[in-house]
Hints:
Layout (H helix, E strand, L loop, with lengths): L6 E3 L4 H13 L4 E4 L5 H6 L7 E4 L13 E3 L15 H8 L4 H6 L2 H5 L12 H6 L33 H6 L3 E6 L2 E6 L19 E6 L8 E7 L10 E8 L2 E10 L6 E2 L1 H9 L5 H14 L10 H16 L5
Parallel strand pairs: 1-3, 2-3
Antiparallel strand pairs: 4-7, 5-6, 5-7, 8-9, 9-10, 10-11
Flavin-adenine dinucleotide binds next to β2, α2, α4, α5 and β7.
Amino acid sequence: MLMTPFKLHHxxxxxQACEIxxxxxxxxxxxDWVAGGTDLIPNYKWHxxxxxxxxxxxxxxxxxxxxxxxxxxxxxxxxxxxxNGVHPLIAEASLKVASSLIRKNAxxxxxxxxxxxxxxxxxxxxxxxxxxxxxxxxxxxxADCRVIPNQNTLCxxxxxxxxxxxxxxxxxxxxxxxxxxxRQVPVRDFYQLDGKKKNVLAEGEFLLKVTLPSExxxxxxxxxxxxxxxxxxxxxxxxxxxxxxxxxxxxxxxSTALESIPKMHDEQVxxxxxxxxxxxxxxxxxxVAIQKSIKPVNNTTLTPRYRKxxxxxxxxxxxxxxxx
Length: 324
Ligand SMILES: Cc1cc2nc3c(=O)[nH]c(=O)nc-3n(C[C@H](O)[C@H](O)[C@H](O)COP(=O)(O)OP(=O)(O)OC[C@H]3O[C@@H](n4cnc5c(N)ncnc54)[C@H](O)[C@@H]3O)c2cc1C
Ligand code: SF4
């Protein structure tokens, strides 16, 4: 399918990117950011929510920085390795994203801002027209959500990014920039419960970089991912955990690919700690509590029932290292 034409802008600095965004907003023109393009371009090829302008972040100076405590939005996933000083948990999660070819282009910023996915939405234009669209890509038909009908305008498309839950359990901070200046948001507060809005970015803002506290270096972690084909598939469920050796109070757990947002499981961890940590038994209780707390919907390849069941297994595997 041929892509709808768009004008591509190539700013070379953060200031220039903000100026272009500001100008387009003043002119009433819609636009998207693009980084590696491994998510946006396939969507554009299927004529999904295309815009007349696209601003590329590829030439922004300093946006590819990689260190133990700072990763720029344009850092390629293939470069997020322990050899480059990246936390082992982030290196592990990056290696589990898509295929090696995709990871050469894919970036951290694009991964964190990944569009939410749904099998009624990630389809070609003719296919979507044949079912009368849905309100995430509404073409003026007023069509309803196919997954949970009659629920106003909420979209429950699934966030299927791998890296976000890992940055959450390392207590990462997202640095946002836009025409109105800079601000910071913890990764755990970045996502918003609507498959259309996705995150807290306002119009014209983009994700500049992620920083990690120096204490994150003391954390050990594990990321468990369920997917159909290990060679390149999106997660159908994912659980990340991190801890400081011997300190059960430090345990942090987050999940992904189960709802419209990746999320932390502080409540379930606190409940288990309140009853006193009992090793293997506590791990079992925690896994069941997290399984009960998630509500996957029927819009990815595997059934919600199976994905929910697997959350218990993934959580156990992710946290097992703490017991050693
Ligand atoms: C076959 C296939 C398999 C895949 N498997 C996985 C997988 O297993 N796990 C996974 O997590 N992903 C997977 N992906 C999705 C995607 O490749 C990755 O998430 C990748 O990291 C996206 O990065 P990108 O730079 O290519 O994003 P882009 O396509 O450039 O952008 C993605 C979205 O983020 C926005 N965006 C990009 N950068 C910024 C920024 N700095 N600030 C604000 N908005 C921004 C864009 O506007 C767009 O909406 C897969 C993709 C394909 C095609
Ligand atoms: S969850 Fe509903 S509104 Fe969202 S993409 Fe799927 S069918 Fe469309």
